[in-house]
Amino acid sequence: MTAIDSVRLLGADQQHIVTRAQLIEHGVPSGTIAHRLRPGGPWQRVLPRVICLQSGRLTAHQRLRAALSYAAAKGQRPRPGAVLLTGLAVLADAGLASAGHPADLDVIDVLIPAGRRVASRDFVRVHRSAGMPAGFERDDGLWSVGVSRALADLAPHLTSGRNFRALCAEAVQGRHCERADLLGKLLGGSSATASLPHVQQVADELTAGAYSIAESEARELLRAGGLPEPLWNPVLMLDGHFLAIPDAYWPDSCVALEIDSRAWHLRPTDYERTLSRGNRLQAARLPMVRATPAQLRTDPGPLLQELRTLLSTGPHGPHRRITWQRAR
């Protein structure tokens, strides 16, 4: 088998993304590498030390693999878990709509050990960690951090606080990560990240139990309107049996608030679950105020007045038989 035949087998196994060190190791002379990388040649240089054994546009997977290969130790082949994908590449792969499509990423974030001398370059943004997480192997064979760590690494690079809130809300509400784990990653990492205003805001909202942009905006509206802070997403029990998990609940008055956000009701099962929750609360004679995010933004006056009236005339329903637990 010739060196080129050996390289073809290597490339097929790595989606045609290889390092210069791998080519040399497989016996390809430097002159041959240079010849094949000539303008119009069959190979192309993607990043320093990283070569694609094809011409033309790279696929989304090839760009991810090239980013990891670039961030690997200079002169060494990429080792599983030695460098990890993080940031938007992880969030997009998890299916978070606010992260965009994996094929449309302008920047690919990679995490490397602290002290390594690799700089951000072209479409690769390098992050460093004093203690590398274990990471996990994705379905496409690449190695990645979890969603919580990806959000924490991305936080300093987002200029839109609303976009960061949306990503965190999607991650928690979609059960891509646990609330406690996300809080730990946001606040337990670097002090520079933990002190960012949008990180502090998200941490405050998650601690309160507000898991969506709609709930976070409703929380701000209630505060501005002078209403007391409700419980967010509490588990309500009636006579010791599960009753419902309303978006917001005032236990002293036994009043519930439900925010009907279409973003979370696109599936019939989600919509049916929302209707069932409302029916159970009404059957228990607990007043429930319903609102859409659009109403909260454009015409909150009637909603606030209705809540003030209900809160001032409570407690309502079988309040002595209702217990609650905070959101987890």
Task: Describe this protein's structure.
This protein is α+β, with helices and mostly antiparallel strands. It has 3 domains: 3-71; 84-208, no CATH class; 213-325, VSR Endonuclease (Endonuclease, Chain A). Helices cover 42% and strands 17% of the residues. The protein has 14 helices and 15 strands. The chain has helices spanning 3-13, 20-25, 30-36, 60-71, 88-94, 147-154, 161-173, 179-188, 191-194, 197-208, 213-224, 268-283, 293-298, 301-313, and strands at 17-19, 44-47, 50-52, 84-86, 108-113, 124-129, 136-137, 143-144, 231-232, 235-238, 241-244, 248-250, 255-259, 288-291, 322-325. Strands 9-12-13-14 form a 4-stranded mixed sheet, sandwiched between helices. A 3-stranded antiparallel sheet has the order 1-3-2. A hairpin with a 2-residue loop joins β10 and β11. It is elongated.
Walk me through the topology.
Elements: H1 3-13, E1 17-19, H2 20-25, H3 30-36, E2 44-47, E3 50-52, H4 60-71, E4 84-86, H5 88-94, E5 108-113, E6 124-129, E7 136-137, E8 143-144, H6 147-154, H7 161-173, H8 179-188, H9 191-194, H10 197-208, H11 213-224, E9 231-232, E10 235-238, E11 241-244, E12 248-250, E13 255-259, H12 268-283, E14 288-291, H13 293-298, H14 301-313, E15 322-325
Parallel strand pairs: 5-6, 13-14
Antiparallel strand pairs: 1-3, 2-3, 4-5, 7-8, 9-12, 10-11, 10-15, 12-13
